[in-house]
Amino acid sequence: MKLQEHLLFIVVLRENAGFQNGGIPRETTSLRNPSDPSLMDVTRLIASFDLASSTIMIWDYVLTFGMEVDLVWNSEWNFIKGLYLFQRYLPFIDIISIALYYQIGGSLTKTGCQNLYYATAVTTVLGLAASEMLLTYRTWAVWNRNQRLSIILPILYALVWGSGFVVLSIFLKSITFGDPPYPGFKSCFLMHSNKDLVFLWALLIIWDTLMMILMLVPAFRAYRSGGNSTLIKVVYRDGVIYYLYLFVLSSTNVVVVKTLPTHHQHLLTSMERMLHSILTSRILLHIRAQIGDTVVSTKTTIT
Predict the structure, then answer these.
(1) Fold entry, domain 39-291
(2) Bridge partners of 176?
(3) Could you read off the pLDDT of 155-166 as tens digits, one per residue?
(4) Each residue's pLDDT tens digit, 60-96
(5) Tell me, what's the pLDDT at 13?
(6) Residue 191 and residue 7: Cα distance in Å, rounded?
(7) Spatial separation of the C-alpha atoms in residues 81 and 137, rounded to whole Å
(8) What is the tens place of the pLDDT at every residue in 222-254?
């Protein structure tokens, strides 16, 4: 059965890739030499990472649900609360999309797979942008809502994420799906995509670096002035460390996209997506837990 699957797989690759100029295949993510891993194996590997990311997201939600009810759901409605809930619960739509992609993708048409892929990609970038907006707001608040930053940060944010959606649009136009490589193949079969997704992770690195620097400056000042309250420690510790986590993860994503074959480039996408939401949510919850139940609106200079 294993031999038959591989033979069918090779035939499908030849039919979908096409051969031009004396037998040289046009640019696709299909295998080029015997040393390349099977795309089915790559699909299983990425599915495992996606499953792990979804499990981490659900488990974190279970752990922090009590804090969320007390500190967020019971607070008054405002923009920050809405933004928090949006970036917190949007990943669950991603989890459903991922499950559909791997479980019924093989029974969908190429157009159906493409539409499902597009929807997941858009919600992923929207979620990342929402999480970063919440983190940016908190960084601005730490600077006591500095007037210069009130102008500079929104402009830079619009430039970075406007560019991010342009990159996403170009990337999605390069996506091509093929027929399932063998009967019973459950997932959608991604045949081709460019590597422009690396620019999205690069933009994230640039933005997270800027935010980390903006967190380090007041953190150093607070340390010099002798500030050692639990709240100050939570604000700066979580801010700097979490930005460092996101920086490392985005950098790893860039390395994966640039160095591994094209069909590996989604290996860490779901992991970064889920961790962005998890870390952003925990930052807000930890700060509100320290401030206390009396501070539940955005009028505070911290949240």
Answers:
(1) Rhopdopsin 7-helix transmembrane proteins (1.20.1070)
(2) 192
(3) 999 999 999 999
(4) 999 999 999 998 998 889 999 999 999 999 998 887 7
(5) 40
(6) 17
(7) 12
(8) 767 765 566 666 667 777 788 888 888 888 888
HEC letters along the chain: CHHHHHHHHHHHHHHHHCEECCCEECCCCCCCCCCCCCHHHHHHHHHHHHHHHHHHHHHHHHHHHHHHHHHHHCCCCCHHHHHHHHHHHHHHHHHHHHHHHHHCHHHCCHHHHHHHHHHHHHHHHHHHHHHHHHHHHHHHHHCCCCHHHHHHHHHHHHHHHHHHHHHHHHHHHCCEEECCCCCCCCCCEEEECCCCHHHHHHHHHHHHHHHHHHHHHHHHHHHHCCCCCHHHHHHHHHHHHHHHHHHHHHHHHHHHHHHCCHHHCCCCHHHHHHHHHHHHHHHHHHHHHHHCCCCCCCCCCCC
Q: Please determine, for residue 170, whether its predicted confidence score (pLDDT) is greater than 50.
A: yes
Q: Which residue has the tokens 């949006």?
A: 86
- As a whole number, the mean pLDDT across the chain is 78
**Which residue in the block uniquely carries the two structure tokens 């940060």?**
153
The predicted model scores a pTM of 0.79
Question: For residue 226, what are its two tokens?
Answer: 């002798």
Mean pLDDT of 192-210: 88
